[in-house]
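Attaching the record inline, Q. Sequence:
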Amino acid sequence: MVTKIITFKVKLAIALLVVAVILLWPHKGTGLSCVGSAARPALRMQLPYEPATLDFSLAEDGVSFRVLSAVMTGLVSYDRDYHIKMEIAEKMEKLEGGRKYRFTLRPWKWSDGKPVTADDFVYGMHRTLDPATNSKLADLLFFVKGARDFKRGRLKDFSRVGIEAVSDDVLEFTLDIPVSFFPHVLTLPVGYPQRADIITKLGPSWPEHMASTGPYMISRWLHDQRIEVEQNLSYPNFEAGAPEHAVFQIIPEEATAVNLFENGRIDVLFKVPSFDIERLRKRGAVHEFPYFATYYIAFDQRQAPWGDQKARLAVAQAINRKLIVDAMGGTEYVASSWIPRGLPGFNAAIGVKHDPARARDNWLKSKGAGMRKTLLGFDTSFRNQTAVERIQADLKEYLGLGVELRNRDWKAYLHELATKPAPMYRFGWLSPLVDAYSNLVVFESGNLNNYTGWANKNYDELLRKIAVVEPGTPERQRLIDRAQHILLEEAVTVIPIFHYAQILIIDQKIKGFWVNGMGMVDYMKVRIQY
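Structure, as predicted:
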């Protein structure tokens, strides 16, 4: 046989060649790529699913933000202590007691060399506030004079909205009320500049070809496989030694992602099965960061019997959150507060607690009594499956209520929530700002993230007061507690299950990888060492 006359050295050379081909060849199923070079390798990161959109006006989820934070920067951003840091803005002035903010832009260019101007910011926010644009974070701009009326179609002339390019390098915002945290809103994609010439020319495909203002620009996007980015040579703050290339590899299967990590084919995992964490911790690969996010169950109150407060209260009392957290590996934090741990305004004493006896009593007094089955919707993942199966068991045991589970992929699930959500549904909310207001506003009347059909004038009025009162004061905490009391205890609109822990798996050759509480990566501090 031929194999008998091949020398050991030849066998070894063939084996090494095969391994090299396997490791470097792009894999369709996992989106693996050989982007980068031996001198400057690419930073390879997992995404658990493809971003729903990279449209700055429409982006709303953590995965989209993670990619956008690599390719875009706006007027300001957060530093590592969550203070506002100047970016494209060279100077910020707070005028007229906080009713006006003026930003002076520093010389800055898009990745194609065109200067960034104040008009680019005006155009971007005009597009976000256009009634035809389904922007779910546009509400955070409603502090701007005329913004709410323009978005609702009551004001037709955008020149009457308080966003003005005074000159090419001066941008002013006029607010209805003084809002101390308004600059925080401008850290979000809805505050990014946008290019009318590119968007008008490319239409729906523009996010893949948009010029960038951040450290990277998209070089290749293979849908459901990977997004490749490379250094934006126009970015003035690119640090020597930072990765010149990065790859976001779309790997939904957590076990697959761990296998690829352990075989040296990916550097950073953002999602990992809980049963692998301790083993990886022993290797020094586990890193924990704060995460301002809450996992929750809510109801479409337009569907019977969930318009009845007692029925919702019974469900909240029946769910054993600790068992859910334990089933998921014990790395998350049992929640009753809607405001997540680590965010100013958090109060662990707020909310409905597990109480099976009262749950049963309230159920029998509710419009759900005698009901045999309901539907619970969720987006497909191993972790979500684990959580909803525990909820299914609790409601059967304590209320005698059967729960049918229905899962959808992420994009289909978002569409379902926006059109006709399941009677009960699971979701998660990641705070886009370091301020409790951005969590509470989700359930304001008319907010596009409020899929429950619930509205409460007292709650809405509290939000307006919270926006005005200075953060960190006892008065503001009192208002936040009152708003949570209405949301969680009086109305039982939402049932917090747990507050997320942000656990990343990072290869030891990756140094300086840091993520803030909103899931944004500081790419310029990353170094790859061999």
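Residues 382-399 form the longest helix (18 residues). The radius of gyration is 25 Å.

More tomorrow.
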